[in-house]
């Protein structure tokens, strides 16, 4: 198992608050790694540290053993690590196709080929070809989530960081988005770290799951193992819950 992306004791303080506190994480090539944890656990901050939009207070982020932390966000994208945002942020005045083109220009630079062909391919892959000429505001939430995925995928990433892509959409759309995420890994060979609150999606998609609480990694393992870990039950439900819950 080759480690593609790793964090080593990565930490970030905001004043007196340790939002991320000495977290070690390793993503293998071809893996889907789930990141879960209660609200405020530090999940999004961890993504910002990996993506270069926040600098770590200490520790480091490595891609292929080379230091990624310290690079500005656009250089991290160029290195092949791209994130999506919990609150989707398309360019509102650009069409769906133009939004994807922005990513495809980066992707063509990184991986070769033409940006337009890349954008068209990704639009079709993400099921957005028939929406190409529309503005993002005309899409449903699930459609905007697809657009967020397509924009990121168009950059030809090696690692995708997905921040709550599935949360908030209806169950049918959730299944379709989960299938799309799996195809991104299987067909596009992109390794994925996924923050997600929708447990069935985390359980079915993740090869491994890391659990954060108060900025610390409190558990790591198969989805089945972590949801039954006493410290995870306590983090979600409060102290004493682990003993009270059925086996
Ligand atoms: N820019 C910031 N300045 C100050 N505090 C911050 C900042 N960003 C995050 N925090 C704090 O750091 C902690 C971790 O926040 P973060 O958003 O990473 O958690 P999260 O696990 O992603 O939560 P959620 O599941 O609610 O999205 C929280 O206490 C939050 O208030």
Automatic annotation (TrEMBL):
Domain ABC transporter: 5-239
PROSITE patterns in alphabetical order: ABC_TRANSPORTER_2
SUPFAM superfamilies (UniProt xref): P-loop containing nucleoside triphosphate hydrolases
InterPro entries documented for this protein: AAA+_ATPase (IPR003593), ABC_AA/LPS_Transport (IPR051120), ABC_transporter-like_ATP-bd (IPR003439), BCA_ABC_TP_C (IPR032823), P-loop_NTPase (IPR027417)
Keyword entries, A-Z: ATP-binding, Nucleotide-binding, Transport
Keyword NAD: no
Gene Ontology MF term list: ATP binding
Protein name: ABC transporter ATP-binding protein
């Amino acid at each position: 198992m080759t480690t593609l992306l790793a964090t080593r004791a990565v930490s970030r303080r905001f004043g007196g608050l340790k939002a991320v506190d000495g977290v070690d994480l390793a993503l293998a090539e071809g893996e889907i790694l789930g990141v879960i944890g209660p609200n405020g656990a530090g999940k999004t901050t961890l993504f910002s540290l990996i993506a270069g939009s926040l600098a770590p207070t200490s520790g480091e982020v490595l891609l292929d053993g080379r230091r990624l932390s310290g690079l500005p966000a656009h250089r991290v994208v160029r290195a092949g690590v791209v994130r999506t945002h919990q609150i989707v942020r398309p360019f509102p005045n650009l069409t769906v196709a133009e939004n994807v083109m922005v990513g495809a220009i980066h992707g063509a630079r990184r991986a070769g080929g033409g940006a337009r062909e890349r954008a068209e391919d990704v639009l079709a892959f993400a099921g957005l070809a028939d929406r190409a000429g529309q503005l993002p505001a005309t899409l449903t939430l699930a459609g905007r989530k697809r657009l967020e995925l397509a924009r990121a995928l168009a950059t030809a990433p090696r690692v995708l960081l997905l921040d709550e892509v599935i949360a908030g959409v209806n169950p049918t759309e959730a299944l379709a988005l989960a299938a799309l995420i799996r195809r991104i890994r299987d067909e596009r060979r992109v390794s994925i770290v996924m923050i997600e609150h929708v447990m069935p999606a985390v359980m079915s998609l993740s090869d491994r799951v890391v659990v954060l609480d108060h900025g610390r990694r409190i558990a790591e393992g198969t989805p089945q193992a972590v949801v039954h870990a006493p410290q995870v039950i306590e983090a979600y439900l409060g102290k004493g819950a682990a003993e009270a819950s059925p086996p």
